[in-house]
Amino acid sequence: MRGIFKLSVFVIVSSVAAAAPPLQSPAEMQTLSLDQAKAFGQVDGVLALNGLTSLSDEVALVLSQHKGRLGLNGLLSLPENQAKLLAQHAGPVSLNGLTSLSDQVAAALATHTRRLDLNGITTLSENQAKSLAKHGSKLSLIGLKDASVEALVALSAHPNVTFPLPPTPLPASDRWDLTNMDCLESLTVLEALTLIRRNGNALRLNGLKTVSPEVAQVLTQQKNSWLSLNGLPSLSPEVARALSQQEGTWLFFNGLKTLSDETAQALSQSKGSWLFLNGLTAISPAAAASFAQHSGYLFLNGLTAISDEAAKSLSQHTGELDLLGLCSASPMALEAFRMGVGIRLPEKLR
User: What is the fold, at CATH topology level, of the domain defined by 24-162?
Assistant: First the structure.
């Protein structure tokens, strides 16, 4: 009886196998029927269907339920409804054949929760970039060529996006020795994006003489970082407002000799813990009043003299305040400093 049972099972299995048409290699397929899609969808792992140039909605729905990496690099266009379906796929998705996206498709793909490769995309609008910046996993866009500055800035908010390398190679760097970054005298948005991805949480850019508002906005995407811009001879309020948005940052502006009241007000809103302005030799009462609102460490060791009004304001600063370069101050100013908290003066003035 046991032998008859084995024979019966063999006959049944053999009959089913003979009835099922053999699956063609996925890489060779240029069209995909619904039945074929269902068969492939039952196989976990990498599914590369890069020969397909288009999909039906029904096939897209079936493929969205596949478990594993899905490659559809032959698709030349993607309707919004299919983008929404593929965004539900639980694994990495590659759509490297697409060269452009509509706003609707970009918004749909941004809801995908795993790695998304869009390396054929050459241009993005600002709206599309803002949508993709919300994507929740690795995003690869190494084919971008004509994205606007605004689009690149918007994309910089994505924590794990891969951009194309800048046309001019950047100097090599070591995470513990960033001095060779000082040779950069200018910085584009794309170069800034490359640096914050490559150099982690520390950037020393003391060779820069100017920083555009767009580059400043990109640099703010570094969280809990160390940013040194000691080569800047001046700082506009717009750039100061952008840089002050960095969180938990050491900001170095020791090359500034003067500071407008408007720029001081912008820097006083800094979310960073440490603000270095040791190049300032004088401070206006209005600037001092603004810095009184700053919370954190403030270094003004270049000041050699200070007015009573400015001293009174700075004495209300919340956090540590270094004034170790003061050569003289009135009794009224010194009394105000002594009433403050966390203020360090030269030994002769204590």
Answer: 3.80.10
